Amino acid sequence: MAEANRSSRWSLQGMTALVTGGTKGIGGGAWAPRAAVPAGGGDTRRPTGCGTSAAVRRCGPRAGLVCHVATRATWQYAIVEELAELGASVYTCSRNEAELNECLKQWATKGFQVSGSVCDMASSAQRKDLITKVSSVFNGKLNILVNNVGTNIVKNTLEFTEDDFWFLVRTNLESAYHITQLAHPLLKASQAASIVFISSGAGVVAVDIGSIYSAAKDGKLLEKYLRATPLGRLGELKEVSSMVAFLCLPAASYITGQTICVHGGFTVFGL
């Protein structure tokens, strides 16, 4: 009996989870709270990578948690797998249908219980549709919600347009607030739910985001930031996804309202 109780405290078996934007970072390997964006052209609207924040709130008998865990597209993919490995049935979404289908195929070959649909989290109508689908798949109950969608626009503050501003607000703030609001009935129905918000470590320590992004292209600058990190190395995917999973476990049921940084001690020294 004692062994069974111990096992259940460290398992997500039988639980359901929604991870927003969970298909990115298929090829990602390591992360640091500064050098997160590879060199190259393309859209300047990119996932943030300057630290991590995960805010968890518990609903039902176990209530409320806030933690900081560095966010990056690679975490999204890793988090889906971490939760699935611990036994959870996971639902995820992506704006890219081809990317989503490829990920679902890969997860199926690994034996993971993962399903998903196309959703642009910046769209209110699509968020509502997403929750309707999740409710149908999980029979109206949801144990875990991981708000992991996030993006950034790399440009000087004075160059931001009104469209840029509202794009970021809709994607990074409004989407997490609204999807949590929509999911609340499902979370409450499970009677033991966790909500995790992934955000940037910039909420803990001020950072020069331009320098952070350019660090990916400048070896000397990257070295500077690594020296400012007590552990002196880049973080591994599992080191972030495992924290998110831990916060969702029954074993962590009394952790709530906290900010937990997963960045090798970067905020100890600041910038």
TrEMBL record:
One of its GO terms (molecular function) is oxidoreductase activity. It holds the Pfam family adh_short. Gene3D superfamilies: NAD(P)-binding Rossmann-like Domain (3.40.50.720). It comes from Senna tora. This is Tropinone reductase-like protein. Keywords: NADP, Oxidoreductase. Belongs to the short-chain dehydrogenases/reductases (SDR) family. SDR65C subfamily. SUPFAM superfamilies: NAD(P)-binding Rossmann-fold domains. InterPro entries: NAD(P)-bd_dom_sf, SDR_fam, TR.
